[in-house]
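Appendix B. Raw example, untouched.
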Amino acid sequence: MEIYLAQSIGLVAFAVNLYACLNTDERKFKCVIVAGCLLWAVHNSMLGAEMAATLSVITAFRTFLSLNPANRRHAGPLLFLYLVLAMGEKESVYDWLPVCATFTGTVALFYLRGVALRIVHCLGAPLWILHDLHYGSLAGVLSQTTMLLLTAYTIARMLGLIAPGQRAPAEPGAT
């Protein structure tokens, strides 16, 4: 029964992440990411992925701090904290994957803006996918995969390649 609750919480976190990825407003993007991180912490804890749960809580705090550009000075200590946590983790190589993902996400959130922020933030997604496959987080795999696709779509919108609400053109002769 607990596994169903864990997966349900993961699905809610997934929906929150989707909403975040569709936002072109940076502040809103970051605020929604905070909520998603807290839900992922509960989900990962219930699956026994304690390192991922811990990182998710720290990541929520990190993302909250990144809302204020003056807090950039906290990026270094947070990166150091991620490394310290990784050094203490000797259970599985899979537990290092979210550490690397959160490391790149920290750099993105504190030092980048706009399209660059989203591209570098997405570099961690394949690492989370491998982690989530290992721990059996179906919602995590679904979330990270979809996040990549939605972020690519949002980047295209931000670059003016796709107008909001625009659909792909119909093929000639299609009815």
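End of appendix B.
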